[in-house]
Amino acid sequence: MICVALPGLAISTEAGQMTGRGLEGFYRAGRRLLSRCELRVAGREPLAVQARMAASDRARFVGTLRTSPQAGPDPDVIVERNRYADGTERITLHSAAPRPLRLPVEVSLGTDLADLGSIASGNTGPELPASVHASGLRWSCAAGSASLTAEPPPSDALASSGLLRWEFDLPPGGSRSVELRARPDGAGPLRAVGRAATSPLAAAHAEGDDLRVSALLRTSIEDLQALLMRDSANPADTHLAAGAPWRCGLAPVDALVAARMALPLGTGLAAGTLRTLARTQLTGPGPQCGMIPGPRRDAGPHLPPQCTGTEATLLFPALLAEARRWGLTEQETEELLPAAERCLTWLRTTVGEDTYLRDPYPGVPVRCEIQAHAHRAALLGADLLDACGRAGGTALRQWAQTLRTAFRKDFWVEDRGGGRPAAGRAPDGRPVPHLGAAAVHLLDTGLLGEGAPAPGLLDNVQTEKLARLLGSPVMDSGWGLRGLGAKEPGFNPFGHRAGAVRVQETAVAVAGLAVAGYEKEANSLLRGVLGAAETFAYRLPEMYAGEQRTEGSAPLPHPAACRPAAAPAAAGVLLLTTLAGIRPDAPAGTVTLRPVRSAPLGEIGLTGLRVAGAPFSVRVSRLGLAMVEEAADGLQLGV
Question: Residue 137 and residue 154: Cα distance in Å, rounded?
Answer without folding.
Answer: 11
